[in-house]
Amino acid sequence: MQVFSTTQSCLISGSYTNRQLLNTVEGFTFQKFVELSSKFLKTGRSVWFFNGNMTSEKVKEIVLTTVETIGLKSIPKDELCQDRVISLPENSETSVEFNALKNEESNSAIVSFYQDSPKKNLMHGLLHEVVYQILGQPAFDFLRTKEQLGYIVFCRMFNYRGILGGGFIVQSSDRSCEFVISKIREFFDVYKEKFQNLTNEEFETAVNAVIMTKKEIDINLATETVRLFREIERHDYEFDVREKQIEGLTKMIDSTTPDYYEDC
Length: 264
Hints:
Blueprint: H1 2-11, H2 18-25, H3 30-37, H4 56-70, E1 108-118, H5 122-146, E2 152-160, E3 163-172, H6 177-196, H7 200-215, H8 221-233, H9 241-249, H10 256-263
Antiparallel strand pairs: 1-3, 2-3
């Protein structure tokens, strides 16, 4: 969906929208390719991750041979270039509008994003997940079922390189973005009191739902590889993070939840 790539390009420096990438590719000739190839891999960095039935000796052999052939020089970890998440001004609103890629597109889509502070610790990040687990179904019931805002309506949490946030994604064919935003705010006003009066059972149900997602087994080697390589991409290297998350979730206390909602 175009709205996702657009949102990411607004929040992460160094990222590009699909339209920007398309404009770059259009008009790219073979002559330009030849010119670019002469400069290809003159400078750069490489990040390696092997997952599967291979010995460490074989892995080292592949890496050393490739690096020697290409000619890339290794650099210290602290010098690796990282994409930076853009810090939105506190207590303010920022509106960005983009036209659809196709002129005949009759739908409009909106992402209402709410940025939180950087993840302070494991429990802060986990509580953030639980909050949006709790909000998910009520948000759908209010915005989709009751208000009939559009066919695609859902609420989800975001974690852009350790910067927490959350938002609502709505695709509508007959409602303006301004109207959708007003209904999202109305949902917060309506649900705030209900959220602050959650029972222990309701909170535990949400926590257990998040625990179940953490316990899901990787269905294949590709899924496992993506999950583990994400730790390398973010320079976190916490390959046992799921075990730590499950342990943290079991220690949660429901009294912290209303305070978190107020902070949001």
